[in-house]
């Protein structure tokens, strides 16, 4: 239940950051399109901005250069170029990893959990993908993470240790819900602040219908 890397923004907070620095409305889409990292179109007073997901991790200086670029629609963008160059390996790795999404386990299919939780708790708005993580030999598992959510790839990973008939469905559901909540809540507060399990997060976590049961099961089984 940990984030797998340090992030700065989610789509919502990035949009808000750019809007406040530009003073106008932005329709922001994040993409996996590595051949078109950033594109801007202005129509009817709205700026349509499409950026690769990697920009969710960009620092404020780079974001300010994006604002400038939107404002002027021309000019050099050395920081953006450098950022893309520095992240090109990660971008490639991410698109490769994206191919190995595997929600069908031996005992549990994660997509069913994801879809029903998305409907019930999030109005169907969570766009993340979900997959079982790769099985590793037990001895190499040092730090046990039951699930993770990556803002960068918009991917939820669930630990394959849970793909076991001894694990009750409500517990799988709880872990999936927890990670979807990360996707929904984002960083919280101001951009750059890293409150992963905020008070608000903990409050909403308890809204899961089998919350008490799931916590009790986790304690009893020390999974
Ligand atoms: Zn968490």
Q: Under CATH, the topology of the largest domain is which?
A: Zincin-like
Question: How many separate helices?
Answer: 7
Average pLDDT taken over every residue: 84
SSE-based structural type: alpha/beta
Query: What's the level 1 CATH class of the largest domain?
Result: Alpha Beta
Distance N to C terminus: 12 Å
> Can you identify the CATH superfamily of the largest domain?
Metalloproteases ("zincins"), catalytic domain
Q: List the strand order in the largest sheet.
A: 1-3-2
Helix content estimate? 40-55%
Principal-axis shape: elongated
Outline the low-pLDDT stretches: 1-6, 139-143, 188-193
Which band does the percent of strand residues land in?
Answer: 5-15%
Tally of strands = 6
Please compute the radius of gyration using only Cα atoms. 19 Å
Q: Give the topology string: H per helix, E per strand.
A: HEEEHHHEEEHHH
Biggest β-sheet: count, sense, barrel?
A: 3 strands, mixed
Which molecules other than protein and nucleic acid are bound? zinc ion
Could you walk me through the main structural features you see in this protein, from its secondary elements to its overall organization?
This protein has helices at 11-22, 60-72, 78-98, 110-122, 169-185, 199-205, 211-221, and strands at 26-31, 38-43, 46-52, 129-132, 147-150, 155-158. With 223 residues, the chain is α/β, with parallel strands linked by helices. It has two domains: 11-98, Zincin-like (2-Layer Sandwich), CATH 3.30.2010; 110-221, Zincin-like (2-Layer Sandwich), CATH 3.30.2010. The strands form two sheets. The chain has a three-stranded mixed β-sheet with strand order 1-3-2, covered by helices on one side. A hairpin with a 4-residue loop joins strand 5 (147-150) and strand 6 (155-158). Helix 1 packs across helix 2 and helix 4 (110-122) packs across helix 5 (169-185). The radius of gyration is 19 Å and the shape is elongated. The structure holds zinc ion (ZN).
